[in-house]
Amino acid sequence: MEYEIKLWSRIKWINFNIMGKIKQNLFGGFSGKVGPIVGGTWKSVNYIRAKAAKVSNPRTEKQQNQRGKFAIAFNFLKSIAPFIRIGYQTYAQEKTPFNAAMSYMLKKAIKSDETGAIIDFKRVMVSTGSLMPVFEGKATKKNCNMLFDWVDNSGMGNAETSDVAMLLVYNKDKETAVYNTIAAIRSDAHAELALPENWDDDELFPYLSFINAEGDSVANSICLSLSARTK
Predict the structure, then answer these.
(1) In the beta sheet, which residues pair with residue 39?
(2) Single pTM value for the model
């Protein structure tokens, strides 16, 4: 049987077409739908719940753009996850290193152009912390190696000669990376990282960072300018 009930909602009467059945009497529970309310029985217990609200447009341009940013940031960080666990360890108490890196990427290193979301690799930080970074450095590709050179600034702030250099090279074309978290020490002012042979013509981004000898303080990474390759 179908009924119609009027409910007072402070301002006006609202009509609901009842597509459910009332059991026993008005207070004995019901099954089916009454406007935005769903009734039923589970293990002899009557229950009611509100229907889930429908999203009129779950794929708006803004939503799709945000999903695109999230996806591109996630894929990038996934390719360097072990490095990120060291590089963002300072945030381990507040959030996971991966989530901290994701938050930074979305806020600072992801932008949009006419093609959609893209990474601004110059603004990417593969590590961050309070250890003093270096301020002058360059990278040079030589055959299948990336050469890292920097000005030793040991003694500046909390920078120590024993700070360990962490190297990373990201291949934009192949969407993967190679890295070494114990490549040299700060006072060496030089380190090298071997590259795969099939990376010769790809677009590469070299990053340099440091971690102290105790392993509990990390520097902000810097994206080094890539000098003309040498043979």
Answers:
(1) 32, 48
(2) 0.73
- 39, 25 contact by CB (below 8 A): no
Q: How far is Cα 170 from Cα 196, in angstroms, rounded to an integer? A: 12
SS3 79: helix
pLDDT in tens, 137-174: 999 999 999 999 999 999 999 999 999 999 999 999 99
CATH code 3.40.1390.20 for 61-230: no
Percentage of the chain with pLDDT > 90? 63
Beta bridge mates, 165: 184, 210
Q: CA 86 → CA 14, 28, 122, 186, 215, distances in Å?
A: 59, 61, 20, 17, 9
Domain extents for the chain? 4-50, 61-230
pLDDT digit string, tens, across residues 76-115: 999 999 999 999 998 877 789 999 999 999 999 998 877 7
